[in-house]
Amino acid sequence: MGESTNSSLRASVAGGLVCLVAGCAIQAPTPLENTYWKLTHLGDAPVTTPERQREAHFILHPADKRVCGSGGCNRFTGSYELEGDRLTFGRMAGALRSRASEIARSWG
């Protein structure tokens, strides 16, 4: 996607874990749904995406109230509810992958 369609999202991290917390109130000038949200900061630290790795992101799909995205290596999906300025995530599922095997395949 082009930079004009990407939106930045600041995230807070507690205990070194990236979490999506149920009940977060979020206000943004850009619509939350159907927007590519890219992780740009963890707390005050900027996030850079290593070469040959997906950037951490998520998209809220309003037609079926599903969220999907990637933490960089592993993808995730789940449900969500958006009521006014309140975004609540439901059950989430993710794939656990080893980046080493993917990187080795891409080199040869």
Explained architecture:
The chain is mostly beta strands and 108 residues long. It has a single domain (6-13, 21-107), classed as Beta Barrel (Lipocalin), CATH 2.40.128. It has one helix at residues 99-107, and strands spanning 6-11, 13-14, 17-18, 24-25, 36-42, 45-46, 57-61, 66-70, 75-83, 86-94. The strands form 2 sheets. Strands 1, 4, 5, 6, 7, 8, 9 and 10 form an 8-stranded mixed beta sheet that branches. The chain has a two-stranded antiparallel sheet with strand order 2-3. Strand 7 and strand 8 form a beta hairpin. The longest helix is centred in the last third of the chain and has 9 residues, at 99-107. Residues 1-23 have low confidence and may be disordered.
How many strand units? 10
Into which percentage range does the β-strand content fall?
Answer: over 45%
Instruction: List low-confidence stretches.
Output: 1-23
Number of helices: 1
Mean residue pLDDT: 75
- H/E order of the elements? EEEEEEEEEEH
User: What distance separates the N and C termini?
Assistant: 27 Å
Mind telling me the C-alpha Rg?
15 Å
Largest sheet: 8 strands, mixed
Helix content: under 10%
* CATH classification class: Mainly Beta
CATH-level-2 architecture: Beta Barrel
Task: Please give the oligomerization state of what you see.
Answer: single chain
Q: Number of folding domains?
A: 1
SS class: mainly beta
* Large-scale geometry: globular
The CATH topology comes to Lipocalin
Key words describing this protein structure:
single chain; 108 residues; mainly beta; Lipocalin; eight-stranded mixed β-sheet; two-stranded antiparallel ribbon; 1 helix
